[in-house]
Specification:
Layout lengths: L4 E2 L2 E4 L3 E4 L3 E2 H10 L1 E2 L4 E2 L12
Antiparallel strand pairs: 1-4, 2-3, 5-6
InterPro entries: RLI1
């Protein structure tokens, strides 16, 4: 599937759920990997993904 925009979902089962406003694909992927939504000033995990380039 192809898309121009993505929304990020987060929450706790049987407690609450939140959906973000639509983001561009690039920004949505960065939010997912950083595990931080800048528009809501919300971190949804304590850790984030980090990638290092190797030769």
């Amino acid at each position: 599937y192809l898309s121009d925009f993505v929304c990020c979902f987060y929450g706790k089962p049987d407690a609450y759920g939140v959906v973000t406003v639509p983001f561009s694909i690039r920004e949505g992927i960065n939010i997912f990997f950083a595990e931080f939504v800048q528009t809501k000033n919300l971190r949804f995990h304590d850790d984030s993904f980090t990638f290092k380039a190797t030769n």
